[in-house]
Structure formats: C-alpha cells, structure tokens
Amino acid sequence: MGFRVPELQDRQQAAAAAKKAMLEKFKSAVNDPAAAERQAARMEIQKARQVRQAEREAAKKAREAELAAQAAREAELAAQAKREAEAIAAAEEEERKKQEAEAAVALLAEQKAARDARYAARKAAQKKRRRGL
Q1: What is the span of the domain harbouring residue 49?
Q2: 123 lies in a domain?
Q3: I need a surface site. Which of 2, 49, 54, 126 has the fewest CB within 10 A?
Q4: In Å, what is the CA distance from 25 to each residue of 19, 22, 30, 36, 99?
Q5: pTM given for the model
C-alpha cells in the first residue's frame, strides 16, 4: 500500500471534529468550578492588593503631611530664633551707641575741664604779671 491521500470530505470532517473538540474543551474550562474558584481567589488577591495600595498611599500622605507640619514648625522656630537674634543684636548696638555717646560726653567734659583749667591758669598768670609778682 502506498501513500493514501484523504478526500476533501474526510478532511472537512476531520477539521469539523477538531473544532468541535476545541469548543467542548473551552466550554468545559468555562464551566469548571475549580476555574471559577481560581478566578475568585485571583479577584480576592487583587482586592487585597488594592486595599494595601490604598493604605500605603494614605500612610504616605500622612507622612508627607507630618513632614510638612514639622518643616513648618522648624521654619517658625528658625524665624523666631532669627527675630530673637536680631533683637539681641539691636539691643547690643543700642547699648554700644549709648556707651559711645556717654564716652563722647565724658570726653567733651574732660576737654572742657582741661580748657577751663588752661584758661584759669592763663588768667592767674595774667593777674600775677599785673601785680608784678
């Protein structure tokens, strides 16, 4: 016997049988309770993932809000420290100016006293010369 070539009708019947077998296999897979259970388990896992993701997002937002509040507190403390430092610097500057003013007044008083002493000495010398002493 040699090579047997199937007839057209035999080939069509074989193709139809293969299609029917594939359809049956697909229908049995769709109606399979184990597949439905696997699908339900996958859905539960997906829902759990979504819940965890939402929790992570909420925790991240809470952390960001906390960090922002902490940064605001630190900025306020830094601003307050800067204001206090400026107030201290202003007070020191005012005290320095006051001391300089007092030193200037004391210097003027000392100069005036020296000038008055020289004037008095000159007058005394003039008196002395007038009297012929």
Answers
A1: 12-101
A2: no
A3: 2
A4: 10, 5, 9, 15, 104
A5: 0.45
